[in-house]
Amino acid sequence: MLTGGPRAGKSSVFAALQAELGARHGFGSEVATRLLADGQPAPAGADEVRAFQQRVLTEQRRMEEALTVSHPAQAHILDRGLPDGASYWPGGAQAFAQHFELHWENELLRYQLILHLESHLPEQAELREGNETRFETEEQVRALDLRIREIWQDHPGYLHLKARPRLEDKLTEVRNHLQQNGIL
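and the corresponding structure tokens:
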């Protein structure tokens, strides 16, 4: 599973892997981005964040269940996992798990390998560049990346990949980790 804050290159790395490996693995794109691209307004305020994350959680579960059915004996590569929603949730991971009545450890362990691509924020970066669904400020990007790290850092399959400005470098590093872990 690929994770990280906005501007980390997750979706670009995901798209490159999907183009390269397509039929050999099940791929699940980022649910929140799909919802926003389909016209869902960006959440503003705690109540809208909660409603949006409810939709994301529901769709994430559906997508992961569909991958299990459509690709039962193959690895699934995801652009974000269900626990990532806690990084946006008012009150954090504990409040998220409590609200949705999740057994947090079980939710985390549903994923074998967590590749956290650190957000890359070059000076004067255009935050929406390459993804029109972005709505976070630079400060929010940094905070989200840190919260995502806190969510996953104790997972036995967690790997934190430092920010790299070139997509090719990120993709090479992700491929290497997938190979080392028997996924490719």
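(Above: one complete record from the training split.) The chain has seven helices and five strands.
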